[in-house]
Design a protein that fits this description.
Number of domains: 1
Organism: Pyxidicoccus parkwayensis
Strand content: 5-15%
Shape: globular
CATH topology: Rossmann fold
Radius of gyration: 16 Å
CATH architecture: 3-Layer(aba) Sandwich
Number of strands: 6
CATH class: Alpha Beta
Order of helices and strands: EHEHHEHHEHEHE
Strand order of the largest sheet: 2-3-1-4-5-6
Protein name: AAA family ATPase
Largest sheet: 6 strands, mixed
CATH superfamily: P-loop containing nucleotide triphosphate hydrolases
Helix content: 40-55%
Length: about 190
């Protein structure tokens, strides 16, 4: 399967992927675009600019296209993550959704499963004081809308995981047929 783990920053995506990588040794992990771009010398603004999120969106789509036929892949983030950031960015008016949506839809549909890691009522990840919690919450809400309401008719299965790390891992493994208990849409 081709699986992308998606969610706002500091929601537990990378931790979940690390655990899944240990439990699914036949899966290859593709690092998130931010880290790949940074390794290539891309310099991000602080806080990230609209162009920074556009660059991550481009890279995320390229990664899905490069590996379109590859099976057993875990992607750290999906194009929808960056769509969430772009739609909530203070300069979101400069983002032309209609221009980007056909390609976003096309590459997202190459995935078999989107694992959504939302912020929970009792936040499991401590947010450093210097980070913008309002932006994090806005992105989480936007992603929940995009993934669970499917306003862009993506047609990809979404598994929303919750609970402690071990429970989240068990939910994904159950969906993959490696255990029991799941929460999904479609």
């Amino acid at each position: 399967m081709r699986i992308a783990v998606t969610g706002t920053h500091r929601a537990g995506k990378s931790t979940l992927i690390e655990e899944l990588e240990e439990r699914l040794p036949d899966y290859r992990v593709v690092d998130e675009p931010y880290h790949l771009l940074e390794e290539e010398g891309y310099e991000f603004a602080s806080p990230p600019s609209l162009e920074d999120f556009l660059e991550q969106l481009r890279r995320s789509m390229d990664l899905l296209e490069e590996d379109e036929r590859a099976r057993n892949v875990l992607f750290d983030r999906s194009p929808l993550d960056f769509l969430g950031y772009l739609l909530t960015h203070e300069e979101s008016d400069a983002f032309d959704l209609e221009e980007w949506l056909p390609r976003i839809r096309s590459v997202t549909q190459t995935l078999d499963l989107l694992v959504f890691v939302p912020i929970e009522a009792v936040d499991r990840i401590r947010l450093p004081a210097h980070e913008d919690s309002a932006m994090r919450e806005a992105v989480d809400e936007k992603l929940a809308w995009i993934l669970l309401d499917d306003p862009f008719e993506l047609g990809v299965e979404v598994l929303a995981v919750q609970g402690p790390r071990a429970t989240r891992v068990a939910q994904v493994l159950a969906r993959l047929g490696h255990g029991t208990g799941t929460t999904s849409r479609r």
